[in-house]
Amino acid sequence: MRLTKGEKIFQWFLIVIITMLCIVMVYPFLHVLSISLSTPAEALRPGIHLYPKEISLFAWERVLSTDSIWRAFGITVFRTVVGTLLSLVFMSMAAYPLSRKYLPHRGYYTTFIIITMFFGGGLIPTYLLIKSLGLINSVWVYIIPGLVSTFSMLILRNFFMGIPMELEDSAKIDGANDIRILVQIIVPLSAPVLATLALWAAVAHWNNWFDAMLYMQDKTKITLQLLLRRLVIANMGDPMMPVPTEEEDPAMVKAAIIMFTALPILVVYPFLQRFFVKGVMVGSLKG
Amino acid sequence: MNTTNAPDIGGIGSPHKKLKKSSGTWIDNVKQIGRDYVKNRYLLLLLFPVLIWYGIFAYGPMYGVQLAFKDFYIKEGIWGSPWVGLKHFEYLFTASPQFPQIMKNTIIISFYQIIFGFPAPIILALLFNEIRFTFFKKVAQTISYLPHFLSWIVIGGILITLLSPSTGVVNYILEIFGFDPVYFLGTEKYFRFTLITSAIWKEIGWGTIIFLAALSSIDSQMYEAAVIDGANRWKQTIYITLPALMPVIAILLILRVGNVLDAGFDQIFNLYSPAVYGVADILDTYVYRIGLQEFQFSLTTAVGLFKNVVGFMLVLTANFIIKKMGQEGLY
Amino acid sequence: MKHSKKKWTTLTALLLSLVLVLSACSGGNSGGGNTNTSEGSNTGSKEETVAQEEPIEIVWANNFSSPEADGNYVQTEIEKKFNVKIKNIKLERWGWKEQFSVYLASDEIPDIFPIDANETDMATWAKQGIIASLDRAEIEANMPNYAAAVNEFDSGAWMVGMVDGKNWGIPKYWPPGNDGFIPGYNKGWLENIGYSEPPKTLEEFEDVLTKFTKNDPDKNGKNDTYGMSARGKLPIQMFTSVFTAHAVSPYQFKLDAEGKVTWGAITEETRTALKLLNKWYKDGLIDPEFITNDNGQINELFVNQKIGVVDNAGWVNFNPESGYVTKPALEAGIINTPGKPLVGPNGDAYAFAYGARQAPVLLGAQVEKDEKKRKKIYEILEWAATSDEGWLLTVKGQEGVSYEFDENGFPVAKPDESVAAPKLGYGSFYNPLTHIDISKQKYNFDSKMIELRDEITPGIVPLLDVLGPVHMESKSQYWGNLLTLQDTYLIKSIYGEANTDKDFDKFKEDWLRSGGQAIIDEANKIYQERKQ
């Protein structure tokens, strides 16, 4: 494509602006990473930290040798992987029937589901429910109560609605039932949107701490984010013990924990992005 | 793809027109429904487990709403606790020393987020759309999504480091330019600014995706025709690009306005401190404190119900207004 | 249309009934679930109790030194000795209250409540009917040694548990709470600015802070130090040395000139102290980050030579093993040297102290009706608090494994991680009353610590709340909001977003208007009643 002179200037202007934006996006992570690898004195130095002047692995050694961190990591990986997969299965199971116009009482079923986007029962009844189902202190509490995200499910339904009926009809002539059609035809065609929803679900799982805080009294089964919160943000004291007794983690250890929690997602998402960009596009705009 | 069609997210207002027209008797109708159900048994087999899940996990706890009109006594349980009418609402709206300030904070923070946070990704999407170097564009987009994936706990930890008045890099740069150090997270004057800015920083890149998707579907012939008519880039943006984005903008705005009482619990909860409660305490943080720390579950439920009802009405209103303006609404 | 409307209504009715049925189920289940769990955990111990009575199950909740696993060493020892079955509710040291609140709200009431419950919680739970009211005479009869220890140390501790004329727990206090906060200084810095010993008066203190800030006390050639920081995350511990020099803590009740009870934050003394702090802040003597600092940051600033004073530590923090400031500082070659409370403009010198009294140990309401269980709990607590055997087991663990006696008979903990408190279950999880029997102090402090105490504490007068913890009707209604109001104003006035003239008046007025007046009235009533 040929550009005029004015357009060229405009292009350079854009590049400068966007580059600055990218720096603003990336710098904080470099800063924290650099601090996590610094000596204590260097970690407290004011100013820009792009890379550690003198590398100290103290913080990372400490983080990587802490059992509770690895345990929380394992629990978090479990909930992310299993939770995401089960979510996709369940959401597909609902989205497909609701996308078929000939489903009897389709409007009512849809309404039944949408109402839940606006009204909920509140903390205590939810806790009572979870307790009566025996989910307290079970890792399944991370997965089952949040199995379906209504918003994601509706996006999936909208996508399914856009898949041409002809494919389905010909399969039906061949004697396939709806379940086989969903598994063998609809799901493979929906890979991009499913990948997007999977990413949403996975990010939500990875980042969630509230359910762990409320429902998990067993310290050995808490999630990484809750552990991070306890270590980094909420180290507030209380009046019971007037004098402090415990040793606090120094700044670079905190930085290392932050990076440890952030890295898995940062490493994974660039590879998934071609799916989710496409998925958002098709999922949200299909009528 | 037809971009003028809004996503058909809702089912309200479109009850099944597909069933047989109501011509026969009542019994005929039941028979017809029965036949429909048998015919679609596999679809229903798929759907019902999910409906049961909704019944249990979404509707199951809804009976708890009655707590808003009761004084909760643990020993009596939710059903057995005594009714107190509108006591908790009366307390909130007339007696509570905090509630007015908390409502004000919630609405102010939310409005700032809509006014500044909502247009930001649209502008960035327009900028991305103008870039001609595909590789650069792709890399830049990828980088801009980055903060979206991290929790506010992680970002809170990072912000505390970056914004520190003594060792933080932001104040270091401010000082180079001759400004006094500013305590962004600790002073009322700057806290809301910090909230809005950090929220934009986190979500701006991610927010562009949906607009870029809409942009990519604009018929290029429209631009070509515009160029022939002598329209420059600015005019093309105003007359072609923005109108094409309007349906998407409308829907996202409805969703956002419906959530106006959600000012971002995760963010504020992980960033605030007693020094800024005056400007930062919102409905959700208040609910958290009085419910989980002060044991006032009835009051908490009342606040939650109030929030739900207001949110629901706001969505319906926004939907109505947007329909009036000639855009496709949500429901 | 007509028909579809009908269908609509039938369907709605169906859905509604479904919802009702489901919710009824979940509502009903919660009651049933309770009995299930207790049955379930009873079955485990059946074999060993052939001839014996069924063991009593005790649901034991605590948020201190929660053991990692059920069936830990201390737990099994107690179970064997008392023929009980303990069900642990292991809560987090921080943020326990969130978990515990929902746990209680689901009608799971433990038999023994967490240590950190305060008198406001106690009153709330008493009114909810979930804690037991306990007869003082019965406690005294069943826990004779314990009651004697309480009456010897502070018989007033019995008053804390009173709500609506009844006693709601087993009195508890914590004598170290009477030891006040004293300022600690970077010894090297003091020498570098020409002080051979810590400052004694507020004026000297100001001079030290100024020189710490401006005279490059660490001799690194850079102007990168502050005098001090503070714990803005927990404002009750913030700048205590400055407030106490004015004979006030903003977070305590005190007597005014006319002998009436008033709240520290709204007194003129607080205004004067704030004025001074604001001046120091403006002069750059105070680390501006104090607003959000917690002990972790303070520790780090001191150790890395950014600040030279820490004033929220007690005498125990000056022992070389103290994780807060002293030990990490020593490792960095810095000596944290203790000072004395500063003498203020009126000649007052106090050390801010929380006071020893605390909310009592609370028992679940079901214990009130179950005499056997109640007596059993009394028996266990008496044994844990006052017998050497019980105390050493619950607090120090297993002799020869987690601790060993030295030549003076002091139990020295072993540093081995595999026998640490969370593994074996010792600490204070199974003993909420570690500090009641003063004679057990010989196990808490070795001779070195006692030496340190005798060196630092003589002559220090603690500044105590004139009421101590006590239930007030008005407090449970207004307190949360008032504290927020106060935290915010204090911090703002120090860094200057609010002034100490008009804004202080306005704060005082707001505070009194938002329930503070009622609280002060009630406080005076209680004070008068106690006097009689």
Major sheet size, sense and barrel closure of chain A: none
List unreliable stretches of 5+ residues of chain A. Answer: 236-242
CATH superfamily of the largest domain in chain A: MetI-like
Largest sheet descriptor of chain C: 4 strands, mixed
Helix vs. strand class of chain A: mainly alpha
Give the helix/strand layout.
The complex is a heterotrimer of chains A (287), B (331) and C (532).
Chain A: H1 5-36, H2 40-43, H3 58-64, H4 67-99, H5 106-114, H6 123-132, H7 150-161, H8 165-173, H9 178-189, H10 191-207, H11 210-215, H12 224-233, H13 251-285
Helix pairs in contact in A: 1-13, 3-13, 4-7, 4-10, 7-13, 8-9, 10-13, 12-13
Chain B: H1 26-39, H2 41-59, H3 77-80, H4 87-95, H5 99-117, H6 119-130, H7 134-145, H8 152-163, H9 169-176, H10 188-216, H11 220-228, H12 233-258, H13 265-271, H14 277-280, H15 283-293, H16 297-324
Helix pairs in contact in B: 5-10, 6-10, 7-10, 8-13, 10-12, 12-16, 15-16
Chain C: H1 2-42, E1 56-62, H2 73-82, E2 84-90, H3 96-105, H4 119-128, H5 136-142, H6 144-154, E3 162-163, E4 166-167, E5 170-173, E6 182-186, H7 187-192, H8 202-214, E7 226-228, H9 240-245, E8 253-255, E9 261-263, H10 268-282, H11 295-303, E10 307-313, H12 326-331, E11 336-338, E12 351-352, E13 357-361, H13 365-369, H14 371-386, H15 388-396, E14 403-405, E15 411-413, H16 421-424, H17 441-444, H18 447-456, E16 462-463, H19 473-495, H20 502-531
Parallel strand pairs in C: 1-2, 7-10, 12-16
Antiparallel strand pairs in C: 3-4, 5-13, 6-10, 6-11, 8-9, 14-15
Helix pairs in contact in C: 5-6, 10-19, 14-15, 19-20
Membrane topology (chain A): Multi-pass membrane protein
Transmembrane segments (chain A): 12-30, 69-96, 108-128, 140-160, 181-206, 251-272
Main location (chain A): membrane
